[in-house]
Write a structure and sequence with these properties.
This protein has 4 helices and 5 strands, in the order E-E-E-H-E-H-H-E-H. It has 185 residues and is α/β, with parallel strands linked by helices.
Length: 185
């Protein structure tokens, strides 16, 4: 998974991503946020997705998966991930066992996706250093709450019938309007 001494192999496109998952109620309404930069720290994009009903740890794994998929889509071969979840960091590194059944499945998918990278590092950081990803995860939840309130209002205004159409789902949740590359990873 790594080049010499864990550094990117020469010529590899290097990305740095900050990930966060949020769950209101744990489990509850959940969102994932990913903030992406290149090796020099220049912003490359962001993802903000509503995930449905999930635990906080599930949302953290989904944020990591979304980030991995997006970096691969952009042609990245080398990756450094920052997360405020020590659990996710230590499980991905193999320092902690994954006991929860749902997390085991997500963990396996993460490990499979990591095989596509020549270099990969994951590091936990304090929550204060992960503000952008945290904002994106919570924005996804807020957008869903606002949309649900809007649906209630449209139903009341039409005698109980909704004029809104069901949202398009791609299996990865919803993407924020400000995300690069509409259509999902």
């Amino acid at each position: 998974m790594k080049g010499p001494k864990g550094h990117p192999a020469e010529g590899d496109l290097h990305f740095i991503i900050y990930i966060d998952g949020a769950s209101r109620g744990n489990p509850g309404m959940a969102g994932a946020g990913v903030w992406m930069t290149n090796g020099e720290g220049k912003k490359q994009g962001e993802l903000s997705r509503y995930l449905g009903h999930k635990t906080n740890n599930e949302a953290e794994y989904w944020a990591l998966l979304l980030g991995l998929k997006e970096v691969k889509r952009l042609g990245g071969k080398s990756l450094h991930v920052f997360t405020d979840s020590e659990l996710i960091e230590r499980q991905v590194k193999g320092l902690y066992r994954v006991k929860d059944l749902k997390l085991k499945t997500l963990h396996q998918v993460v490990i499979e996706n990591l095989r596509d990278f020549s270099s990969f590092e994951i590091e936990s950081i304090p929550r204060e250093e992960n503000r952008e990803a945290d904002r994106l995860a919570n924005d996804a939840i807020q957008r869903r709450i606002a949309r649900e309130k809007g649906k209630e209002g449209s139903r009341r205004g039409r005698g109980g019938r909704s004029s809104s159409h069901p949202a398009r789902r791609d299996g990865w949740g919803e993407e924020s309007p400000s995300s690069k590359g509409q259509g999902g990873p």
